[in-house]
Amino acid sequence: MRRMALIVQKYGGSSVADAEKIRNVARRVAETAKGGHRLVVVVSAMGKTTDGLVALAHQITPAPDPREMDMLLATGEPVTIALLAMALHALGFKARSFTGPQINMVTDAAHTKARIRRIGGERGRAALDAGEIVVVAGFQGATEDGEITTLGRGGSDLTAVALAAALDADVCEIYTDVDGVYTADPNVVPDARKLERISYDEMLEMASLGAKVLQSRSVEFAKKYGVPVHVRSSFKADPGTLVTREDSGMEEVVVTSVTHDRNQAKVSIMRVPDRPGVAAQVFAAVADQNIVVDMIVQNISRDGFTDMSFTLPRGDRARAAAVLEEVARRVGAEGVQHNDRVAKISIVGVGMRSHSGVAARMFSTLSREGINIHMISTSEIAVSCVIDDKYGELAVRALHEAFELAGR
Amino acid sequence: MRRMALIVQKYGGSSVADAEKIRNVARRVAETAKGGHRLVVVVSAMGKTTDGLVALAHQITPAPDPREMDMLLATGEPVTIALLAMALHALGFKARSFTGPQINMVTDAAHTKARIRRIGGERGRAALDAGEIVVVAGFQGATEDGEITTLGRGGSDLTAVALAAALDADVCEIYTDVDGVYTADPNVVPDARKLERISYDEMLEMASLGAKVLQSRSVEFAKKYGVPVHVRSSFKADPGTLVTREDSGMEEVVVTSVTHDRNQAKVSIMRVPDRPGVAAQVFAAVADQNIVVDMIVQNISRDGFTDMSFTLPRGDRARAAAVLEEVARRVGAEGVQHNDRVAKISIVGVGMRSHSGVAARMFSTLSREGINIHMISTSEIAVSCVIDDKYGELAVRALHEAFELAGR
User: Fold this and answer.
1) Chain B contact for A278 (CB, 8 A cutoff)
2) CA A381, CA B386: separation in Å to the nearest integer?
3) Fewer CB within 10 Å: C terminus or N terminus of chain B?
4) Domains located in chain A, CATH noted
5) What was the ipTM of the complex prediction?
6) Residue from the list A68, A87, A89 with its beta carbon closest to the beta carbon of B86
7) Segment B344-368, tens digit of pLDDT
8) Which of A65, A97, A132, A136 to mutate to test binding with chain B, by most B CBs within 10 Å of its CB?
9) Are the beta carbons of A271 and A299 closer than 8 angstroms?
């Protein structure tokens, strides 16, 4: 007899956008339940509900209090859980909904971006033991004092992964509008291949490199607690991609995927005096503007001066440049250059660690296509190059072929 | 120096229907707060939100589970409290919102029509002591186990009165779209007078007699705990009507008001055998159809037979008549008569207890106008007559004049 598994499933806002779609999700959940599995289902607010609530708050005041903002935003998901529980009842299943506070999702008091402190799994476990499908509001929790909090962007994924960890689930299934993680963007590389498995670290590199399948926080949480995460399609029954611990099979593959981010700009400060504290001044000025910097490159200095470059979201480039002109004057640098027609191309793979020559093959591939490299940055399992935007897709296709990622 | 009062205010759904109206309520609350008073504000869901949620549930299933229905319905008010708190912040006031569970509104587990068990006033009191305006979600509570419940129709009024009792407030102000309680419907009797004060018992009679200012449950609660309730207009600053304990001044007035209900029908079962158990059979059959009966009149029997009459909402008449034809056959009655062109006219006043002749004056007034009385029923502080619908307004005007209710 097959073992009865405990499965956590998560469905996002577009999967539960109206009554008809909620009934569809209920049917999908019911299929898994019929397989004899115990089920916890995490859902987001319906469709664009959360955006609507944010807009309503801004009709009241331009700067809403974060505590009251959380009170407001946390009203979205309980609508979905109640309706999904009703839809499951209508299909003849026992089901019970829980808000974040009810499932004991205890967070710190950092309103609108709270971090999970602990999850008391008792109520969920009691409902599962009573044969009920447990339906949980994603994105929300409460402090020890009962203040309502939300987890910030991608919070429902985090709820699902955290519940899977707390309940020691066999797998956490994240249903999305893509059917898994690919070796490259299939819109750019037609023979890109869906990966059956990928390691947490590779997924983390890919998440931060612009593949928007899973938020980094959820992957970090899954890695920390060893939760297997299955990314799969809301619309197809096919298996998707399992995000899991590295295993020996993975080591054999050097490069897993090629990612690219076309929404980047490059800013350089030229001939910065190379003395302690200058880098801190530069990045403090940028952080003060709430601009998130991605790659940072600084080469060795020459004659006591160095050039500092970094990439940032294209929309922030003008603002960053203005701030940096001022900083450049203050620290005695020569000036600021910027370019918002760049793309960042990366190769990712845990196998890279033990294989020399991967970066070299990347550079020679780009060179063979006549693509000039502006900046290079490497991490333990990724190599990234900034190139001219117009060569972005050519670079991805060339690297996908060079590393033989197609149809293995 | 004036004593600092504690005031509970309640605003209904139409007063908070959009962002602009919520800002208006905030300004009204701010005016009271500027007077140096401590304030608890109870609000309903915005406009028709609750109706919309009910409709959504019925898109999922015709018979939603009551627990899940409460989970769904309880999402409406937290939107309003968050927005009102934000609006008060924008006016420079300290304010903090609380859901029903957060303010410790503990109820029994009768989902969709829960009854209040107790209110832990600690959190509200702590916020008031910190100089904050306390904003509370009406209509909702939670069981001791943390299950979310709602209080049924008129639940937000009940929340306000119950909080006023728990916090020992000086007054509970209910803001509505009328500016108080009148001696008769001003649309019918142009010189009807707004009552400055009215007793709980009179208000209860009026509430059940079709004056829809306050739900009976809230008045009962206010009476039980001696909470003074001030019914007043959301749109005008004028004082409204204070619902309070009887005082010596009230006793002097025999009749306080004339009410009428035009939405009634009359059904009679003719020549019912007068033996034990027959009345029970008749009303059990009606109750099985979820039809709420209002007046019931049965006179003494003659030759072992009696006639039973009662009034009920006009929309239920056809259904009730069908059921009763069947019951009449079963118990051996002669048949069923019905009439949905009737109105119920009542006079209400605590002074009636100690004054004979009040009913007689009512009957003679109607007689003088040539109005025939179909049914009569009396309570301790009210006399009601069922008459032809077409004489309803004439009867109200004649009684209003006969009891000298205008411009005293």
Assistant:
1) no
2) 87
3) N
4) 6-176 (3.40.1160.10), 257-402 (3.30.2130.10)
5) 0.80
6) A68
7) 999 998 877 667 678 888 888 998 9
8) A65
9) no
